[in-house]
Each structure stands twice: as structure tokens, then as C-alpha cells.
Amino acid sequence: MTALPLWAADKPNVIMILCDDVGFECFSAYGSHEYATPRLDALAAGGVRFENCHSTPLCTPSRVNLMTGKSNVYNYNDFGVYPKGEPTFANHFKQHGYATAVAGKWQLLTKKGGITPQDAGFDSYCLWNFPGGGSKRYWNPSLVQNGKLLDLPAESYGPDITTNFLIDFIKRNQDGPFLAYFPMILPHNPFPVTPDSKVPKSTDSKSNFIDMVQYIDKNVGRLEDTLKELGLRENTLIIFTGDNGTNSVLTSELNGQQIRGGKGYTHDYGTHVPLIVNWPGKASGGQVVDDLVCFSDLFPTMVQAAGLPAKTIEDGDGWSFWPQCIGQRGKQREAIYCYYFPRPSAKKYNDKYSHYEVRFARDKRYKLYDNGQLYDTVNDVLEKQPIGSDPANATIHSVRQKLQAVIDSYPAAGQNANRRKP
Question: What is the value of pTM for the model shown?
């Protein structure tokens, strides 16, 4: 174990973990009895678990939102494209002396545009869905590491390769502050077995998905164990979340309810994701926070937690929730906003992966869309029964006014570079 130099001890390490297609209902820390995630349970028990974190309903929009600290309405271009010229949280950490690395899924650079990991502020990377790689992400994966397509042994498993890469990065940078961004490959479809599956040739999607979620937990544990072995755990902030809801082909039970995955849809099962924050001795152990959190908030929260100068983000709408993590009241949101238009260049729009352009604002119970439809997200999660306008109902009238004011505070349309021409 190497002692931290004095200059590094003042700067904590940060590990930001983002899962791919898994909602809040798939973790035992949130009450599930179908999924066993003991390492995440322990992180939640020793840290902070958030009950009201919402992403956008699909992967690229959420990633752009997280990395830039601003709503997609300001800068989203198209699916698979990161808006060139927009600084990332990694750029900010790198400017303040951090070694930086990213491993997992990129999906931010295509022929339509985007940026490289170096542009995004990462010193090194090991990535799937990156130019020069192939389509396989799990068994015998196509991963590009620092500009080269990896030549891997037969039956290599992608999530292991990317986790190993970050473990090696941590070991190489144990003497100075580091930022590790882990946009995991898991547990996006297809749903093959994992190395730990008890039925090695299983083709049951749900059973295999459960194994994949549990493999997420295993790899989070491997990262934490590395920190402990190196004596770095007390000086490392870990944040764990997911980019959107679970795939809609899967249904999970939570608290006696059957929850069908809502990936791609704008109802809560498409946006309600886990959020766990753990930093021994810093984040208040065992705390459960009900405050609203959106993905714009992650960038400023990491910066404040690390004690870095705040980043001035043009059009940034993120609020740091770090005060809540250390037991303070913090700045609490009355509502959050979401802009969703994942594939502006699609030939046809629908209500899922090529969704029509839509904006909505929501508080802890009600959600208002830009077309005027209002829903009770507690009693009507799937948004089947819009609430009519009734000036005589003072509560509903007030909610409408409040949420409409939030919508009106943002631009009326996105800035999509690849918007389909009428």
C-alpha cells in the first residue's frame, strides 16, 4: 500500500459508474427480491441512496446530459453524436490535475459527428461502440483501446476486459488524483449468459438479465476491492446510476408490483434510475434522500464534492446535490425538466426510440407535457389518464402553473444539428 502524497490527499479520486438500460426496480438496494446486488446494497447502506433520480429515456441523450451538465434542449445533435465543442466533466477534472480514463460504451462518435475520448478529456480509454471496433460487446468483444482494436483470447468477456482496464488505471495512478468514468456495457440487450451463470447455455432473457445485473454488482465490487487493497477507499467518491429504464421486453417485481421496463418511453419507468453515492467518512451513511435529481446535476455535484472550482457551464441547468450527500438540506428542486428527441434525422418518428420532439416538467407527483397533458405519476405511472383542466381544482391549477413555468423557462425547441427537414 502506497501512502498518498500530501498534494494528492486534498483531491479525492472519483469513480462515476453509468449502467446501460436498467431502472431502479432491478436492485435489491431499492427493495427488489429478484435481483441480488449485495455490493451496491453495502454502498447504499454506507452512503446515500436517492429515490427520485431521473435520466432521459434513452442512452445517448442521457450521456450527453450527464457529460455536459445541461439539458439536451440546448445542445443535443443526434443519436450517437456528442455535440462538438461542449466541455465535459472530464475536461474540467483534467484541467485541475486529474488523471482521467473511460471504459465501456462510448456511442458518441459517428459519421454524423461527435468527439473522441481525447477531445472529451480522457487520457486513456477502452471502449465498445467506437470507430474501428465491431458490434460484439459481451463474448469475444470488439473493443478499441487507446486507438487499437484489441486482439483478445477466445471467450473473452467484454465487461471483464473493461473492468480490468480501469483496475489497471487505478493501480497506475494510485499516487495522484484520478477520475474514472465507467459507462458500463452491461446490461443492454442482447441477453447472453455471464461467466457466472449457473446455466451456461441459457437462452432465457429474464434469467440471463438477472445474471447480468448481478455481474454489474460483481464488477463494482472488484473496483471497490482494488481501492481497499491500495489504501484508496477513504479518499474515493463512487457514484452509481443508470442511463435510462430497463428494456421493455423485461418485467420485474418490486414491492408486489409487476414493472415492465420503460426504456425509450417518457413515463417514469423510462426515466426513473438508481442513484447511489458513497464516500466513507464524507457521504452520510445510510441516508435515503427523496429530493428530485436530474442528470444535469451530476457534473456540478462531482465538482463540488472534489472541492474543485465550479465550472461555468453556458446554459447549464444542473444543481449540485452534494450538500444532501453530507446531511445538509441543500438546494432542493421543486421540479425538473426533460427534453427528448433522440433521433432527429430519423425518417419516421414514433413514441419510443425515434420519439417525436417532446418537453416535459415534473415534480415528485405530477408531470406536465408541452402539449398540455398532465399526469399523476404516482397513481398513473404509465400515463393512461390525463388530468383535465379544472380551474375550480386549486391544487391541479397550481401544479399546472408551476410546471408550465418550468417548461417556458427553456427554449421552445431543441438545437438539433441533424433535425430532419419537413
Answer: 0.97
